[in-house]
UniProtKB/TrEMBL annotation:
Organism: Microbacterium oleivorans
UniProt keyword terms in alphabetical order: Membrane, Transmembrane, Transmembrane helix
Protein name (Swiss-Prot/TrEMBL): DUF4232 domain-containing protein
NADP listed as a keyword: no
Pfam families per record: DUF4232 (PF14016)
Top-level lineage group: Bacteria
Region of interest called Disordered, as start-end residue ranges on this chain: 191-240
Record domain DUF4232: where: 239-368
Statement: the UniProt record of this protein carries the keyword Glycoprotein: no
Regions of compositional bias (Low complexity) in chain numbering: 202-221
Membrane-spanning ranges: 51-74, 86-108, 128-147, 168-185
Database matches in InterPro entries: DUF4232
Length: 376
């Protein structure tokens, strides 16, 4: 039995080498991918498609079943003598057993949904595993046939103990592994389908209603700064982020043009002076700074009076207008957050937005102007 277990171990090693090599070569790409197609593989049907835990569980069960079935059959066929033909036949039947139980699992799983004909179409693992063993099963058979009858003195105690396990016990181990194998494979398939449904639901939630590019967690870029560099010293009576707030309602639209009215409100108990242009920036759907050209001046949606000092009394307001031309955002990064400050060097406020501003777009912003009180 010890020789059978070692021969089964060689069969398992060959199984994994031939199964993993095409996968790794294909993943490497280029000419190596073509080379991978030339390696005969017993794992031709999505062995690596399931989530990692189930993939490993299935492969462990395959290894146990191959070792146990090979050891039991090789010992029985050889009648106490390690013959090459008995080892090769044992390798073929062990591989056949793996494919057969996987095909039976697929058949009975799909029977209720696809019927007999559809379930038969889901099978096909058995020919792959069997012909693989026909082609390469001579390797473990040769290794098994050349092993000495008595275990070497340096053989590890674990191997010697395993060799003393009765044939009946290894037959039971093989049966349990073969029964559990299709169950684990189906559980892995179910986990894969569940993961796909979750990914589809997540993608649907993240899908942009305007067709912009979906958020990419692996994207690189510069985060939107919380404050732009100041253009000079801040006067003591200046309107700042500490004594004002900004209101930014939804954008307005005209044919081919967009505009957004900003209101600066003095929330303190003292007058403050604002002189210049708002600080404007945008973030994309990945939370990175959107590269747009922010220019001071007029747009179709608002005239720029130019910078002038305006004194805001407590509770009074000034306004400015952001204007830009309409853009198609389909497949592009787009403005999904708006960052505003009363002036560069002040802390920015931020809003979640959905604007058709894309990288390279030009945005015009007017200077702050006083809002005249209503007459009468």
């Amino acid at each position: 039995m010890r020789r059978g277990l070692i021969g089964g171990g060689v069969l398992v090693a060959l199984w994994f080498v031939c199964g993993w090599a095409p996968f790794l070569l294909y993943a490497a790409g280029g000419s190596l991918a073509s080379l991978g197609q030339m390696v005969p593989s017993p794992m031709a049907r999505g062995a690596f498609a399931s989530p990692a835990p189930w993939t490993f569980i299935v492969q462990i069960l395959v290894a146990i079943a191959l070792v146990a079935v090979f050891a039991v059959l090789a010992s029985r066929f050889s009648s106490g003598r390690a013959t090459f033909a008995a080892g090769w036949l044992a390798a073929i039947l062990a591989s056949f057993a793996i494919g057969a139980v996987l095909d039976l699992g697929s058949f009975f799983t799909g029977l209720g949904t696809f019927g007999i004909r559809g379930s038969l179409g889901m099978m096909g693992t058995t020919p792959v595993t069997t012909w693989w063993a026909v082609a390469l099963g001579w390797i473990p058979a040769l290794a098994w046939a050349r092993l000495p009858i008595a275990p070497p003195a340096e053989t590890a105690p674990r191997v010697r103990a395993a060799g003393r396990v009765p044939t009946l016990a290894w037959s039971a181990i093989a049966a349990v592994a073969l029964i559990c194998l299709p169950l684990a494979a189906q559980a892995g398939s179910d986990a894969t389908q569940t993961q796909l449904r979750e990914d589809e639901a997540t993608a649907a939630q993240q899908a942009d209603p305007d067709g912009a590019a979906a958020p990419d967690p692996s994207a690189t870029g510069e985060p939107v700064p919380a404050m732009a560099p100041a253009e000079g010293p801040t006067p003591a009576d200046a309107c700042t982020s500490a004594n004002t707030t900004i209101l930014a309602p939804a954008e307005d639209a005209a044919t081919g043009h967009r505009g957004q009215l900003l209101s600066l409100v003095n929330t303190s108990d003292e007058p403050c002076v604002v002189n210049g242009y708002p600080d404007v920036a945008y973030g994309d759907q990945n939370g990175h700074l959107l590269q747009v050209d922010v220019q001071h001046g007029s747009s179709f949606m608002g005239d720029d009076p130019g910078a002038a000092a305006i004194t805001l009394q407590p509770g009074s307001s000034a306004r400015a207008v952001i204007g830009w031309d309409a853009n198609s955002v389909r497949g592009h990064l787009a403005a999904r957050s708006l960052w505003l400050a009363v002036s560069p060097g002040q802390e920015r406020l931020t809003w979640e937005v959905s604007l058709d501003i894309i990288p390279g777009a030009t945005v015009h912003v007017t200077a702050w102007r006083d809002i005249a009180p209503p007459e009468g």
